[in-house]
Amino acid sequence: MADQIAFVTGAESGIGAACATALAGAGFDVAVLFFKDQALADASAATVTAAGRKAITVQADVSDEAAVEAAFDRVKSELGLPTVLVNSAGLNQSGVNVADMSTAQWLRLIGSDLTGPFLTSRRFVQELRTAKSPGRIINISSIHASDVRAGAADYCAAKGGLKNLTKTMALECASLGITVNAIAPGMILTPMNSRAVSDGAYRKTLEADVPLGRAGRADEVAKLAAYLASPAADYITGATLTIDGGLSLLLAEGA
Fold first, then answer.
1. How high is the pLDDT of residue 198?
2. SS3 per-residue string spanning the chain
3. Which of 145, 253, 147 is nearest to 208 (CA)?
4. Strand order in the sheet with 84-87
5. Closest Cα to residue 91, out of 152, 42, 43?
6. What is the pTM of this model?
7. Which of 1, 162, 181, 224 is the most exposed place for a label (fewest CB within 10 A)?
8. What is the pLDDT of residues 72-106, one digit of tens each?
9. Dist. CA 184–CA 43, nearest whole Å
10. CA gap 109, 206 in Å, rounded
11. Which residues contact 214 (CB under 8 A, 6 or more apart)?
């Protein structure tokens, strides 16, 4: 996969940063799209250059159409045409029930976790269609796209929508040679799960529900993303690949 370009959103930390590192190791130059923290974005870019690849950092709010368009313009100008898009930017669930959730909170999370991938994917496909180039879209979803929990209507609705956006675009883009897939992580130790990262006792209570007995790591998710970006995944599209240590298999226990 040498000398190709990947565009990774949310690449300043967590799964996005791990994807930037993994793709660099697979031979990609990487555009590191970040929301706020330039220092974290620079650190992520440094892992790319350490692998011998080129990296640029680009600040943008993925829910802002103008910002997404400007980000793509800059990546094309400074790095080249991306052929892989990883949509990893997103926010975590609010923990607020629907009856108590503000409209602003609902729109904030839908904007980042669903509208963002729509905006980036739309521009990505437009560019590849014009260039007559194949490509890959990899959406970082969640097991909560299918398995819901109270207090997470904003997050579950966004990830459920992302799952269907993935399937729909897989149909629309197949004739263009663009595959579209999603990855559905379970409990992964990232800043989004900061309490589980910092509190070992709390983490153990959660890991007790995971059949494999531990939380997952961001680099494990990133390796799956690198696989989907590779020629080995040429015939996979419209799929959601679950990586959760078996957590989602326990739903019927006790029924």
1. 80
2. CCCEEEEECCCCCHHHHHHHHHHHHCCEEEEEEECCCHHHHHHHHHHHHHCCCCEEEEECCCCCHHHHHHHHHHHHHHCCCCCEEEECCCCCCCCCCHHHCCHHHHHHHHHHHHHHHHHHHHHHHHHHHHHCCCEEEEEECCHHHCCCCCCCHHHHHHHHHHHHHHHHHHHHHHHHCEEEEEEEECCEECHHHHHHHHCHHHHHHHHCCCCCCCCEEHHHHHHHHHHHCCHHHCCCCCCEEEECCCHHHHCCCCC
3. 253
4. 55-59, 28-34, 4-8, 84-87, 135-140, 178-185, 240-243
5. 152
6. 0.95
7. 1
8. 999 999 999 999 999 999 999 889 999 999 999 99
9. 26
10. 24
11. 207, 245
Closest Cα to residue 212, out of 243, 189, 183, 252?
243
User: Residue written as tokens 């609902």?
Assistant: 106
Phi, psi angle pair for 18, to nearest 5°: -65, -35
- Could you tell me the two tokens for 22? 């993994």
Separation CA 108–CA 91 (nearest Å)? 9
Tell me if 22 sits within 8 A of 47, measured CB to CB: no
Length, in residues, of the chain = 255
- As annotated, the active-site residues are 155
pLDDT band at 1 (very low <50, low <70, confident <90, very high): low
Q: Give CA 68 to chain center in angstroms.
A: 16
Residue 86 and residue 121: Cα distance in Å, rounded?
9
pLDDT in tens, 165-205: 999 999 999 999 999 999 999 999 988 777 888 888 988 99
Structural contact between residues 135 and 129, judged by C-beta atoms closer than 8 angstroms = no
The one-letter code for the residue type at 194 is S
CA distance 20 to 149: 30
